[in-house]
Design goal:
The structure is a single chain. By secondary structure, the protein is α/β, with parallel strands linked by helices. It has a single domain, classed as TIM Barrel. It is built from 14 helices and 12 strands. The strands form 3 sheets. Strands 4-5-6-7-8-9-10-11 form an 8-stranded parallel barrel, surrounded by 7 helices. Strands 1-12 form a two-stranded antiparallel sheet. A two-stranded antiparallel ribbon has the order 2-3. The model has no long low-confidence stretch (mean pLDDT about 95). Flavin mononucleotide binds next to loops. The site of flavin mononucleotide has 23 residues, from loops.
């Protein structure tokens, strides 16, 4: 494959490479998949306002995220169970992230351990966590991440229980034993009602988690804590109040509550509420470099990529992940050049027009 390939072509390669059960698991959203479709479609309603005659000979996409320099405002989102996509699993993803100099967020539900990923390459890594009913297991994982050089903890807050993913239920999707928890907790659950992932989540996720628990998390780690899964200004303000170090606007790739808004349509609401006090990151539906440009124009410091990374991994392992990241970088570079933005700092609110802008104009 060459870097000119579009993300949808990697998706097709993944579809050909994977058993249907796994492809459906990686691709799908919740229930009617309304939000799933909207996440991608909503980008199309945002128009770019290019500036001309800007001397674009040198385009610099590099940026700093949570104090770490990276090649571009692109991060690898935490996604579960990479070994179902490729035998090298998260190690391949981490190595590609290192080569591309982008930050990788390792999922709590990985199929390689925190330690294996840490020792595989020198990528800057953050660690995503869920809080289990057995809190000492989550606490232990945070400590293992800290000991192994992960630079931030990303607490996913939109998953007190698992969203209803109907394809997984129909396919009777089975989770493998999750590597990080070997010897600690069995992640093999027998369920006669469809997806055993749903049954597993029900058994182990702490659905009593609430805002005061951020205090608990802070008390067990020195790493910065970001919350992933904020969709409203109200929750953004609460996150500021409890003192998190960053917010990720995300609807979990539309895999949790269906009929939540497409993330790109609520990014600005959160950015305005936060007033630049902490970084706002973004994910959901990014499939083009121009999507990244739009998210930055609306105030995101960086975007995270979920499914496209898995498509690259399934298609060609480490090489495929690198190509997916390169494709998005190439497209972002092109969008910046043709919009007259030489650095990511040059990308401003005035470079896009949203649907809301158009509605306001008509009033
Ligand atoms: C197959 C799959 C597994 C995921 N696993 C996790 C996870 O373990 N933890 C988490 O916080 N988010 C998880 N997510 C959500 C992603 O981090 C991210 O929010 C989402 O994929 C972004 O949307 P996109 O796939 O359209 O890029 C997962 C998403 C997918 C598609």
């Amino acid at each position: 494959m060459t870097a000119e390939q579009h993300i949808s072509e990697f998706q097709e390669l993944a579809r050909l490479a994977l058993p249907k059960m796994y492809y459906d698991f990686y691709t799908g959203g919740a229930e009617d998949q309304h939000t799933f479709e909207e996440n991608v479609k909503a980008f199309r309603n945002i128009i770019i306002r290019p500036r001309i005659l800007m001397d674009i000979r040198r385009i610099d996409m590099s940026t700093t995220i949570m104090g770490y320099s990276t090649s571009s405002p692109i991060m690898v989102a935490p996604t579960a169970m990479h070994k179902l996509a490729h035998r090298e699993g998260e190690i391949a993803t981490a190595r590609a992230s290192a080569t591309s100099n982008v930050i990788m967020v390792l999922s709590f539900n990985s199929t390689c351990t925190v330690e294996e990923v840490a020792s595989s390459c020198n990528a800057v890594r953050f660690f995503q966590i869920y809080v289990y009913k057995k809190r000492d297991i989550s606490a232990l994982m945070v400590q293992r991440a800290e000991r192994n050089g992960y630079k931030a903890i990303i607490l996913t807050v939109d998953t007190p229980r698992l969203g209803r993913r109907e394809a997984d239920i129909k396919n009777k999707m089975i989770s493998p034993q999750l590597k990080n928890f070997e010897g600690l907790i069995s992640t093999e659950v027998v369920s006669d009602k469809g997806s055993n992932i749903e049954a597993l989540a029900y058994k182990i996720l702490d659905d009593s988690l609430c805002w005061k628990d951020i205090g608990w998390l802070k008390s067990i780690t020195n790493l910065p804590i970001l919350v992933k899964g904020i969709l409203t200004q109200e929750d953004a303000l609460r996150a500021l109040e409890v003192g998190v170090s960053g917010i990720i606007v995300s609807n979990h790739g539309a895999r949790q509550l269906d009929y939540t808004p497409a993330t790109i349509t609520v990014l600005e609401e959160v950015v305005v509420a936060v007033q630049g006090k902490i970084p706002v990151l973004f994910d959901g539906g990014v499939r083009r470099g121009s999507d990244i440009f739009k998210a930055l124009a609306l105030g995101a410091q960086a975007v995270m990529i979920g499914r496209p990374v898995i498509y690259g991994l399934a298609a060609e392992g480490e090489n495929g992940v690198r190509q997916v990241i390169d494709t998005l970088k190439d497209e972002l570079e092109q969008t910046m050049a043709l919009s007259g933005c030489c650095t990511v700092k040059d990308i401003s609110r005035s470079h896009v027009r949203t649907e809301q802008d158009r509605l306001h104009c008509r009033l």
